[in-house]
């Protein structure tokens, strides 16, 4: 008899995947601007470090909220005792309004339909517990966030069936791909309970088109299943086309309570980890129009409530509309600039990206640098980039991409100087390794210089996991 | 085959445990909450195991240590690093601080390894996580009764793990015996139920007692012999206020020959010992490396807010604070316990002799019409409606003997305790002039809500049922008037 549970001894937390191994290597030799300039630069971490100054300056101006005080009097005691899983009402109200503001106030959110969770990690898992039985499936477009393998599947027993997307159309979801995924699930005897999309997309860094969204809504309407829209990057949509939330589509289609039941089957996941750059605070949320989902998820949130002191602080912050307005626009501006820098730097190295307008990363096309159009070649290239170029980026295979050669490269979790350095290294690598002359924004045909290729067996890759936290940074 | 329902079974079944008659007491309270000046005839909340008695000590420390907050001018330099930190190992100094506090709460008799400290979403999250690590759906855990009602949800709702109660009764002060364990274990096995372990709460909720060393040793021997797990929920360890002192499971491991430490796991939290349930600090501490690793990965689903980790690290590494806090808390709990139980004894009501926890296990068997649970319910409704105290009936803890009630004494001020005692005296008939005139109130009181004051930040209480110790329907004790926040107003 096995002493521990199957969950404890199996692999479906997904943390032995390559995505996390690169992170391990980073941990062993992390870049530091002063102390370790030769170290590995972390570009696999989708964090938003660009706007902390705005939050810090707000704190300086708002000492009461900052110090759990009300009129100079401490309310620590109240906060210490507050464990109501409905959350602090002011916080939910402020959060609902913030979500609305991000969507240009085109839709509004009812705080009573908002359920708090300990990060989007917990929100996504909780939704799966509410919507599906073990053994049932959700369809997800590839490429997708590697952490979904853990968040959606591990303890819930839910299966993921991929909706294959390709570069032929910028990785957009097509009707054909949807239907094929659905049929694949049926072939595998899996009952499909819904579709889960991330919009804006991780790892693509793009927002979903109205077309795609409408198609998805029609699809789930037709099949009588759920649609979960993970919109945790909604506040990072920094350039056109502007972000369209699935809630907007529902509103346009007039799918309100008196209309189609699809209204009750669309659920949104949100978090402050990406938009506000506060992953440590563990603030996630589920929004659903279905009272039963709200009720069940609320009870489940007992397993991961948001710390009351954090709710209190954020309630004050997000209630300050001057702050939120300024933050949202500054955030867009800085992300846009930073992304531009990465894109143009990559271009100089003869590398192009999927045209992105959101997120904290670019979906980079290095297919032309592959020895062959295979995932083995992708891994070889990736190892070179980690060990030689000393950049931790995420290989597309870890995101379940069907095409080898794509990589996710983050740009918002480092200083500008560090980004410059990373780009220099990459350019030097491409130039030296592939023996191409200085490229001025043109894509050159690469001729592999075999005499310069090092033996690939040189890199000993430790596959066993030594229990480093992979930082679920998406 | 898969069900046809659009939502999962878990989402639509009763596994959350909130649809119990038990909540009638809460309804009565919510509808008519006591307030010293504004609603002196309201229902007094004695069903909530909270410990606010020493929060002032914590507040003092916070005032004196602005650097511990990432929001103050003194501490804001750390804001970025803290806000950014989501490593599921937690801050090293946080783990060290927790290990330190756990040790001090056990009188320094046990040392804890910070690398085995794993975060969870409160003890609620910790208990669930441990089940996910140790058992598969359909497996079972032995749980001595009476036990914390929410175990039904925490151990079993999403995990599919079953509870097999091990019944204890007053014949031996509700102690768990080896014989009872063996009987429960055999019976389960004969019914093809796969027992994966035993979970105990020590100090016990609802009994308010610690498990003595010999009993604890016998429990470890039992699980060791059967090669099943032992989970010790020690969340009340720091609330021990009188003899005998608390014995942590770690202390007896050396007394058990060939003890397999891979079977030993501790669940901890700061919610009771420090009175900070809102901060959601739950801990899984296991001697099994695989469980530590697995629980740590699972902690992603319920990490402690980095803001909270940061503050608690500084606080709990301050040895002077910790010693002072534990000593003060213990004294105040002892005093409150003594005050309350003495008051009860004066009217002939006895409690199980308790030395820990935030409650008494009150013996009202002689007030029952007959020794049945129906009679217990009748008595309970009378206590809620006539005496106007929300206490928790033993049946809700799956106690096998009718007539026992858990009464919390720490979650109110002293004046309120006096009022509660006065009412009890009157009910028992010894205070002639203070007869209960409110005789014929119905169960669902229709009287206008006095004192619907919006205390603190919690401004409205939805009519949905609540679960005690999981959610509190208000932010602060209803017995302490606090001004409404000018900073945060609901619409």
TrEMBL record, chain A:
Its cofactor is pyridoxal 5'-phosphate. InterPro entries: Aminotransferase_I/II_large (IPR004839), Ethylene_sulfur-biosynth (IPR050478), NHTrfase_class1_PyrdxlP-BS (IPR004838), PyrdxlP-dep_Trfase (IPR015424), PyrdxlP-dep_Trfase_major (IPR015421), PyrdxlP-dep_Trfase_small (IPR015422). Pfam families: Aminotran_1_2. It comes from the Eukaryota. Pathway: Alkene biosynthesis; ethylene biosynthesis via S-adenosyl-L-methionine; ethylene from S-adenosyl-L-methionine: step 1/2. Residues 41-426 form the Aminotransferase class I/classII large domain. Keywords: Ethylene biosynthesis, Fruit ripening, Lyase, Oxidoreductase, Pyridoxal phosphate, S-adenosyl-L-methionine. It is an enzyme of class 4 (lyase). SUPFAM superfamilies: PLP-dependent transferases. One of its GO terms (molecular function) is pyridoxal phosphate binding. The keyword Transcription does not apply. GO terms for biological process: ethylene biosynthetic process; fruit ripening. Gene3D superfamilies: Aspartate Aminotransferase, domain 1, Type I PLP-dependent aspartate aminotransferase-like (Major domain). It catalyses: S-adenosyl-L-methionine = 1-aminocyclopropane-1-carboxylate + S-methyl-5'-thioadenosine + H(+). Its EC number is 4.4.1.14. Belongs to the class-I pyridoxal-phosphate-dependent aminotransferase family. PANTHER family: 1-AMINOCYCLOPROPANE-1-CARBOXYLATE SYNTHASE 9, BIFUNCTIONAL ASPARTATE AMINOTRANSFERASE AND GLUTAMATE/ASPARTATE-PREPHENATE AMINOTRANSFERASE-RELATED. Homodimer. This is 1-aminocyclopropane-1-carboxylate synthase. It comes from Rosa chinensis (China rose).
TrEMBL record, chain B:
One of its GO terms (biological process) is fruit ripening. Keywords: Ethylene biosynthesis, Fruit ripening, Lyase, Pyridoxal phosphate, S-adenosyl-L-methionine. One of its GO terms (molecular function) is pyridoxal phosphate binding. Belongs to the class-I pyridoxal-phosphate-dependent aminotransferase family. This is 1-aminocyclopropane-1-carboxylate synthase. Pathway: Alkene biosynthesis; ethylene biosynthesis via S-adenosyl-L-methionine; ethylene from S-adenosyl-L-methionine: step 1/2. CDD domains: AAT_like. PROSITE patterns: AA_TRANSFER_CLASS_1. It catalyses: S-adenosyl-L-methionine = 1-aminocyclopropane-1-carboxylate + S-methyl-5'-thioadenosine + H(+). Residues 44-424 form the Aminotransferase class I/classII large domain. Its EC number is 4.4.1.14. Homodimer. Residues 439-458, 472-491 are annotated as: Disordered.
